[in-house]
Design brief:
Blueprint lengths: L3 E7 L13 E6 L2 E7 L3 H8 L6 E5 L5 H4 L2 H10 L6 E5 L2 H13 L7 E5 L7 E4 L3 E7 L7 E7 L5 E2 L1 H7 L3 H8 L4 E2 L5 E2 L1 H4 E2 L6 E5 L9 H4 L4 E5 L7 H7 L4 H11 L4 E4 L9 H10 L3 E3 L5 E3 L1
């Protein structure tokens, strides 16, 4: 099975603590790295993850609150010091380009690579990136400013040809790729061996949904239904639901409810408020609704 991994670089909320870094993750799909959000300290955490910097070419920013984007200028500057030449693609609300370009012009006057901005419209669901391995869709969320999550959808790989069929029918090498792509095989006497007999299907494609920051928002349920892994913010306990509503955040109980109603396979909660010294209380609350829940933590790797 091809690689599909999620690395948690930071899972704290806006107020810095000594327990958590600000929001950031890296998704590794078939050795292509995609960053989601880039709070302060992200480049330090990226080093600790031991991921290869050169394979990171796309950064997705959910919204323009500082705890999700203050690490960008430092990261881009460091890439320049490391001699980067490949284009860095940044997907975000249109205002990020207006804010970041002056900083790049001031602090990175002789930058050796191109930073290309791609406008994201947080209010609507759309594909913002696609290649042969994966597509990335926006997930409209409801926060104090325009915000979206991201849905990573793996592309289905080719079917696997059975080794015993290659030997039995003496299939030449130049026909194998055609068969993997759906063709049958015609024998010298004209008999057609169907594709289904020659192959077995590849593993089902996997999906990962990232949803932070948002109030409890049932409109996302249909879009994330059945995903292999859901990261959903769980900033506060349900006893603090008034504060959650004031700040447009979700409680751990609500995060568990979203996961249950969407029928996801696994839930990971994060974006923890600094008011809780032990996040296990958040885990217990979410797990009471959706048992297959885990806590995010720095340098945690989840394999899909």
């Amino acid at each position: 099975m091809e690689k599909f991994e999620v690395y948690i670089l930071g899972c704290g909320s806006a107020l810095p603590t000594i327990r958590h870094f600000a929001s950031s993750q890296v998704v590794n799909i078939r050795e292509k790295l995609f960053m989601i959000d880039c709070g302060e300290g992200t480049q330090l955490q990226l080093r600790r993850s031991k991921l290869r910097f050169s394979r990171l070419n796309h950064i997705f920013i959910s919204h323009l609150h500082g705890d999700h984007c203050f690490g960008l200028i430092g990261l881009l500057s460091t890439f320049n010091l490391l001699g980067r030449t490949a284009t860095m693609h940044i997907y975000a609300h249109v205002d990020l380009e207006k804010l970041l370009v002056p900083q790049l012009n001031y602090f990175c006057k002789r930058i050796n690579y191109k930073v290309e901005f791609h406008t994201v419209h947080p209010e609507k669901e759309e594909i913002i990136y696609e290649d042969r391995s994966v597509s990335v869709n926006t997930i409209p969320l409801k926060h104090r400013i325009p915000t979206c999550g991201f849905l990573f959808c793996e592309k289905r790989t080719l079917d696997h040809i059975k080794r015993e069929m290659i030997d039995f029918y003496q299939i030449p090498i130049n026909k194998i790729n055609l068969i993997k792509n759906g063709a049958g095989y015609e024998l010298p006497d004209g008999t057609l061996i169907p594709h289904e007999r020659l192959t077995y299907p590849s593993a089902p494609p996997r999906r990962y949904a990232y949803c932070s920051d948002t109030v409890y928002y049932s409109r996302i349920i249909e879009q994330i239904k059945g995903v292999d892994l859901l990261y959903h913010e769980a900033t506060l306990l349900d006893r603090d639901i008034v504060r959650a509503r004031e700040t447009f955040h979700t409680t751990s109980l609500q995060a568990g409810t979203i996961a249950k109603e969407a029928g996801v396979k696994r839930l990971i909660i994060g974006h923890f408020s600094a008011r809780y010294e032990d996040e296990n209380v958040l885990l217990e609350e979410a797990s009471s609704i959706f048992p297959n829940t885990i806590l995010a933590s720095e340098n945690l790797k989840i394999v899909l």
